[in-house]
Amino acid sequence: MKVLLDDIVDVMQMPAEDEKSYVDLETGEVITVQDEEFEEAATDKPLESFPDWDQGPIALAREVLRHPERYRKLPVAGKNAEKKIMERFRESIDDPVAEEALKDALSGPETLRSFKNVLSEFSMEKDWFRFRERFYRSAAVQWCRKNNMEYRSD
Prior knowledge:
The chain is mainly α.
């Protein structure tokens, strides 16, 4: 069983406060369950009492709750993770003028907007997205290795 690295990267890049993501250790599939679905799954209500569209996700949540040994929870990027990645990107810039502009953007109000404006001004959008992708891919590989999980890149 190998997990698809891109699936882990996707989860890491789009963290949500109201959901949890797991790797199914039997299939390698990455699954995501909403907190609300866990709450419903923890009740004694029969699955059929829920609307049709909720039954599948609630059944999956029940499966995770009943067999936690089968599922490995994926890490969640903290609230400051993106800013830390932006800081690392800034530190990697060779152009002192662009680096200073990014430093100012990251220390002022509306950090994300300012950061994006500087990226645009210096035509660094592609560099940023490549850097960010490599960062998350590296984090995903480290997580897989730490958890003795084989992975594949398609």
